[in-house]
Amino acid sequence: MFHGRSFDDVLGRLYPQGLAPDGLPFDGVTNGMPPDGSPPEPPPYAGSTDEIMTTPQLPAPGATGSGFTPEMLPVLSALARGFAVCEAWQSVPGADAFENRRVFHNGPDAAAPSLFARLDRAGLSWRIYVDEAERVSLTALLHAQELGPRLSDRLRTMDDLRNDLAEGSLPSYSVVEPRMILSPNDFEPSATAGSAGEGPTRRGRSDARAAEALLHTVYEAIRVSPLAGDTALLVTADTPGVTADHRGSRVPAVVVSPWSSRGSVVRAQSGHGTAAEVVLGMLGVARSARADSVVAPVLRGILTRQTPREPRTWPRTTAPFVPRRTASNASAGAERVTGLGGEVLRLVARGTGGPDVRAPETAAEAAVFLGDNACPHLGGHNATADAQKGI
């Protein structure tokens, strides 16, 4: 799960002509041009504001904000075109990243048992994989009260993920968390904070290329794994963040599955609120009739094949070049951590020392802090040393 990206921002231009491979309309960014190529409707402006609203500096009628083209995000775009994209996957309107991530695993009812607890009851395994450089799991923090001691043997590193896939020992359900603090690869849009001469002037640069590199790594590990024919990968984002979508709270959702036809578009309404039910449905766990009525159309849109595709026919992706940046670097070390990374650090600080403990603000401070406060279940790595390797 990435952070702070809308559907329009990263997938809205996936099919520029506004038509999906099945010939039906694709609800992306059309820039005001109807699918049949006819001229768009004139702008609904009149009177004294007409001159202002039709100046050349304004976007064309119907145009949306800026975003990525498929060429700018080759890995995500290749997977979206090569497998299934859910064009109606909604986050929780107005909710922050923490709440959306909770809803993803709990559903709308905060008191309901989480997906993890339901998997335990069904006798199915699960794990959470985090980056070796940080060794802090936001998912574990959000569900710590419910899961408690069960987390001790469920937290693993990205190296473990690659090994589990290679050895065919992946659990029934896995959460892969990107880095949110040190050299983030969580896709969060960059933002400027403060001004020159006032200490750290940037709020962490979360490079989109780093997010693409992470996605390539996970996808490629699945593609060459003996479990490729039985594994589905959901790529999504917690919230649209500051990026706009013409359908409000919609976020990207791409499903990589050997049971999905190339160019599949899932038009059934879905989202974080039904994600747990979708996962249980794909695992064959019995659901209520009400849940099944919501999830069944989504599963039909994803699982469109009678036989799985051979991994050799899957799209091939290439990891993009990502500039080497470390927490000890003079410029990178002085950067503020990203917005979500800062929230995670404050959550860890409150949990380890109470509300009066100051959370680190820069990457260099965060590296030291994580070395002292990372999850003890993840082994004896040193976060400071790991961060200085440029991970």
TrEMBL record:
Extent of Pro residues compositional bias: 36-45
Keyword hit for Hydrolase: yes
Pfam family, one: Phosphoesterase
Any one GO molecular function term: phosphoric ester hydrolase activity
Region annotation (Disordered) ranges: 22-47, 184-207
InterPro entries the record matches: Alkaline_phosphatase_core_sf, Phosphoesterase
One GO term of the biological process aspect: phospholipid catabolic process
Keyword annotations from UniProtKB, A to Z: Hydrolase, Virulence
PANTHER family given in the database record: NON-SPECIFIC PHOSPHOLIPASE C1 (PTHR31956:SF1), NON-SPECIFIC PHOSPHOLIPASE C4-RELATED (PTHR31956)
Protein name: Phosphoesterase family protein
Organism: Compostimonas suwonensis
